[in-house]
Amino acid sequence: MSTPAVASLVLLVEGDETRWACLSAALKGWGYEVASAASEAEALALCTQGWPDIVLCSGAISGLDFCRAFRARSEARRSYFILLADSQEGAVDCTLDAGANDVLLQPAGLPELRARLMAGARFLAMQRELTQKNQLITETLDILRQVHARIDKDLVEAKKFQQSLLRERYRAMEGGNLSMMLRSAGHVGGDLVGYFPVRPGVVGLFGLDVSGHGISSALMTARLAGYLSAATPDQNLALTLSPGGTYAARPPGEVIAELNDLVLHEMETEHYFTLMLAIADLTTGEVTVAQAGHPHPALLRSDGRVEQSGTGGFPVGLLSGVGFEDYKLQMAPGDRLLILSDGVTECPDPGGEMLGEEGLARMLGELRRFSGPAMLSALVWKLSEFAGNRDFPDDVSGILLEYQGEG
């Protein structure tokens, strides 16, 4: 049986010349390279010239002391130490405590010694293989950390871009004021709220929530934002150009139906989204709304009553040929309209119970004294308190219209 190359160098520490000659000859016959020392000091000096794979040390030359001195050097962890000990009570325990890997009680035959050497060779082979694998794992983790750092940096930039889609958090207009919030559950999310002017005194409002989380949802959100853009009215699906060169609002349900066709037939995506699209006339207080799976709007009346109703509807991008109905809301001066994502009503408390519409109504009643962005911030604070001050499991977004009426 050949000896593995991993255990090619044996340091033989033996002061008895007769035993040294016998052991040295046997080791060389088995294919080992042998370095010999007759004392502890000589053996340690040899280790500085080349570190042995296996140490075979006789207990007759203070083997325990040499084992301790040998193990005190950091390089010693790479070697397998066999001590040839006398057959006396406690010899094995003392030897192992000193740092030896194996003890061969004397007298012992050469076949047994060879078996112990082969065991040591297998141990070293496994140890070095484990070291190599650990090194590979360490290098892989370093690469993953670098990749994660780059991804994290990209996600931070993506979040900045997504937040930039919400161009304004507050907008004062003739007849009413708009406030908006967008809080992603992760780096980036699938929620978006916004508005676009139609004509003086008329404004479009929308809240949408793309399925899923992360970059793909955020990319879908960014694309949809272009279809309801305030910056480029000629590309806004909710607007139509009149012969006189001015823009007019299309029926919201018709717009959502067109978006549904676009998603199903022109976009290669597995995402769908909920949407609420509203056209608010700030001169009359009339709001025309179409709902596609988005939570019902919350109408907070000036007397404190909270009304939540709507048509419900299917999310956009699920079924072909479905219709989306328009319905009307009538606001009076002092009323407030809230379009919120389901991250609000479906927010769970520590016991898993969702806030729901009734919980939202109670919460809005408690926040009556707030207005504008402060009301939305207070809503997030109350929602966090409801959730037990834990991170929200879903994106939270909302747009608030405070109707003042004609001045």
Explain what the structure shows:
The protein has helices at residues 17-29, 40-47, 63-71, 91-97, 110-165, 215-227, 252-265, 342-345, 356-366, 372-386; strands at residues 9-13, 33-37, 54-58, 80-86, 102-106, 170-173, 176-183, 191-199, 202-210, 239-241, 247-249, 273-281, 286-292, 298-300, 306-308, 326-330, 336-340, 396-403. Helix 5 runs parallel beside helix 6. With 407 residues, the chain is of the alpha+beta class. It has a six-stranded antiparallel sheet. The chain has a five-stranded parallel sheet with strand order 2-1-3-4-5, with helices on both faces. A five-stranded antiparallel sheet has the order 8-9-12-13-16. The chain is rod-shaped. 37% of the residues lie in helices and 25% in strands. A hairpin with a 2-residue loop joins strand 8 (191-199) and strand 9 (202-210). Mean pLDDT is 86; it is low at 1-6. The chain folds into two domains: 5-130, 3-Layer(aba) Sandwich (Rossmann fold); 166-403, 4-Layer Sandwich (Phosphatase 2c, domain 1).
